[in-house]
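queue> holo job accepted (fe (ii) ion)
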Amino acid sequence: VLCLTQPTDARWVSVALSDLPSVLVDHAHCEMKAATTALALATRADAFPEVVRALVMLAEEELAHFRAVLDELERREVPLGRPPVDAYAAELLRAVLATARDRSPAGALSDRLLVGALIEARSCERFKLLSLALDERGDALLVRFYEELFTAEARHYRQYVDLAGQVLGDEARARTRLAAIAGVEAEVAARFGTRPAIHG
Ligand SMILES: [Fe+2]
Ligand SMILES: [Fe+2]
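queue> job finished
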């Protein structure tokens, strides 16, 4: 799917379906973090006003997703709970920054944008797996919910890649770096995929 070089561990879908409330809680936390990350990136992108604007719009969409998952939780009377650290996202960012060759402000910002792209891509893959499995279960409402989110997160993936290209002023360089980061992501993702969580 998208730029991912390794598919999710085949066990993940059954783990996720065995505890859907936990997946929905984690998903709500992911959307909240997606919004705050986009806003944090906007403040780092002050030298690129168009990038700031795009990130603020992206954050607004993630907030709408957060609200939509909250609606699902309320419907099921599942409490939101406190978000834990997203170990997958934290490890991915650490591993990517450790491999950075271009340590200029633009290079660092574009790496963070590309990490955002990878997280969107992995979320997309997982949403697709969930919607296919939920379809087999006949849960039509949630299937539509995850299909819509799949489309939105796929668009976010492309936006993050485009924004990295804008920051570098070089689309081809952003693509090359994206491929390298996708390789790092595959190694990180291989250590996950066994918990009922979007990136777990
Ligand atoms: Fe989202
Ligand atoms: Fe997103």
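queue> The chain is about 75% helix and 0% strand.
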